[in-house]
Amino acid sequence: MKLEGLHHITMITGDAQKNVEFYADVLGLRLVKKTVNFDAPEAYHLYFGDERGSAGSILTWFEFAGARPGHPGAGMIHTLQLGVASEATLDFWADRLTAKGYASERAGRTLRFQDYDGLQFELVVAEDGNPPLRAEHPDVPGEHAILGLEGARAYGRDHDAEAPLLTQTLGFSSLGGGEYRVDGEERHFHWAYDPATEAGVQGAGTVHHIAWHSRDADHVAWQQRAREAGAHVTPVIDRDYFHSIYFREPRGILFEIATTSPGFAVDEDPAHLGEELRLPKQHEPLRPQLERVLTPVVNPRIAQRERVQS
Ligand code: ZN
Fold first, then answer.
1. Which of these, 256, 29, 253, lies nearest to 121 by C-alpha position?
2. How far away, in angstroms, is 300 Cα from ligand 1 center?
3. Can you give the C-alpha Rg of the chain in angstroms?
4. Is residue 111 within 8 Å of residue 146, measured between CB atoms?
5. 168 CA to middle of ligand 1, Å?
6. Distance from the CA of 211 to the center of ligand 1, in angstroms?
7. Nearest to 77, CA basis, from 239, 227, 190
8. Distance 47 CA to ligand 1 centre (A)
9. What domains can be seen in the chain, in order of their start residue?
């Protein structure tokens, strides 16, 4: 039984419209689902990824409108690494980010930048053989598209002490010095800890949790295995687009394990993902009031399609 690398990473933002503009327009990802937080339905939950919303490409945000900026500290993820095809692509993104008003910094085969909330990213030349997970955007040529997530870095106390929950229970390979790899059948992911002792502040621009990808058939076995290792694991929760379990890893980061199925086309035509507000079944009766309180956000796909047709 192997984890198939990453499923998704979830962050917090204070502004859903800026979130859509940055990820679905500046970075050229596809907004694949516009829904609300299961536990706080007055808050958006927005999902971005490749054309199909494939596991391994998904970044999601809870919007808490007007949330104060946070910052990462011990027990929090601080940097997300997105794959691209070549060094020429790093030049393309340095230019595009500048044109959109965002600074970036080149270091060898990496381009570092922050989003509008201060969340730290690195574009890295992907060399692990991950199948490309591209979205289409009229201003981002296919050869320069972002290709999915390659890795993430977190802060932790005793950052280089090997964690048996990661290696023995979840099957990560330890590379030493706090660096790990997750090797699925198809996809790979780099996971690492950097030293920090001070706590961070959860808020806009910080990561809420990371979800690893399980085959549907293995999901309950992962729950059992994590429980046997002493983790406090939740029951299996139906998240509409996948099934999930949650537990904290030893340094305090919230881990989720999520299934492949049913995926984002379960309640929308694949050609129109993320264009309408979808609500979890139990919150459907709240629709009239949610549509009043949630600031409308427009999926750039709609405007792009109209531009092409006119
Ligand atoms: Zn999640």
1. 29
2. 24
3. 19
4. no
5. 23
6. 6
7. 190
8. 10
9. 6-309 (3.10.180.10)
What pTM was computed for the model?
0.97
- The CA 32 to ligand 1 mean position distance, Å, reads 15
pLDDT one-digit tens code per residue, 150-205: 999 999 999 999 999 999 999 999 999 999 999 999 999 999 999 998 999 999 99
Distance 209 CA to ligand 1 centre (A): 6
Is 60 within 8 Å of 48 (Cβ atoms)?
A: yes
CA of 220 to the centre of ligand 1 (A): 17
Mean pLDDT of the chain, nearest integer:
96
Letter for the amino acid at 243? H
Coil, strand or helix at 255: strand
Residue 193 C-alpha from the chain's centroid: 18
Q: What spacing in Å lies between the alpha carbon of 285 and ligand 1's midpoint? A: 24
Rounded to the nearest whole angstrom, what is the distance from the C-alpha of residue 10 to the centroid of ligand 1? 6
Give the up-direction half-sphere exposure of residue 98: CA atoms within 13 A in the CB hemisphere: 10
Distance of CA 8 from the midpoint of ligand 1 (Å): 6
CB 93 within 8 A of CB 58: no
Residue 248 pLDDT level (bands cut at 50, 70, 90)? very high
CA of 46 to the centre of ligand 1 (A): 11
Contact by Cβ (8 Å): 34, 53: no
| DSSP classification of residue 281 | G
Cα torsion 301, 49, 185, 249 to 10°: value is -170
Q: Which two tokens stand for residue 252?
A: 């305090």
Question: Among 98, 29, 36, 11, which residue's Cα sits nearest to residue 241?
Answer: 36
What end-to-end distance do the CA atoms of the chain give, in Å?
A: 51
Phi, psi of 88 (to 5 degrees): -60, -30
Structure tokens at 34: 């516009």
In this prediction, residues 234-258 reach a mean pLDDT of 97
Q: What is the whole-number distance in angstroms between the Cα of residue 251 and the centre of ligand 1?
A: 18
Q: How remote is the CA of residue 161 from the centroid of ligand 1, in Å?
A: 26
